[in-house]
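User: I want to check something. If I give you two sequences, will you return the structure for each one separately, not as a complex?

Assistant: Yes, each is folded on its own. Here is the first sequence with its structure:
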Amino acid sequence: MKLILKLILNAVAVLVLANILPGATVDNYVSALIVAVVIAVLNAIVKPILVILTLPVTVITLGLFLLVINAGIILLADYFIDGFYVKGWIWALIFSVLLSVFQSILHTILLKDKN
């Protein structure tokens, strides 16, 4: 149940960001939910592999290269999903940073309601 609620909250965050940012668009609610699922799967499977492969660069840049990895995950989601479009690397980077901020805010609100 908690996983479904997190996915719905992530889909809401994707919808809000797509409406705010001119460089990102989502066609409908179903596409936003699919984007949330695909990003969750990519973060669970692809991101750890990329982090391990780029560990020296990540250490040299003091972790800032993880932002590039997150932007790459967003662009991969753009590639896999027809109803989700991001214009380029800069918009994917902005989208990923703002998505992380929105997710942390929404998940904190969710955890406060549980206590």
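And separately, the second sequence with its own structure:
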Amino acid sequence: MSSKREIFISVDVETAGPIPGEFSLLSIGACDVDDESKWFSIELKPINNNADPRALEVTGLSLEELAERGSDPTVAMKAFADWALALAGHDASLVFVGFNAPFDWSFINYYFHRFTGVNPFGFAALDIKALYMGATGSTWSDTRSSQISKHLSPTRQGDHDALHDAKYQAELFRLVRALGGRAVS
């Protein structure tokens, strides 16, 4: 059993399409689940011109504009890693928290490995939808954010801004974690 503290980091991404490598990671929002004043946000230059028009419509982001103002992916991922590792210090481990974590994780993991060579989260990714399903005994179809929000009544809602959504997800995670009513030591 590890004696390291665990730092849960809520991460949300906006992308140009459904899979990394073929489509670009466009923005990252992240916050410490237990202290949202500790947050990170960055927009990235696209790695190619591939885009699903529906993805861009949802995000409101433009590949052309991000090519001008976005950060180079290597710089962006190094900044994200530095921010996350500074939160952990030497006595904590990082846990990636996402809402539909497999999607967000796939982009973050790909970009970390491609542009920095290492993912500071390792393989520690926690999915809020799966956690909710386990905590409530719900069906998978009941893990949509609209369904979870009806049950848990968060004060925030998602809006496809990566940082706003990361903070919304952090709130959902805290509410789901509280359903268990006990802390893990």
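Because they were folded independently, the notes below concern the second chain alone. Helices lie at 53-59, 63-69, 73-88, 101-115, 128-136, 145-152, 162-180. The longest strand covers residues 5-15.
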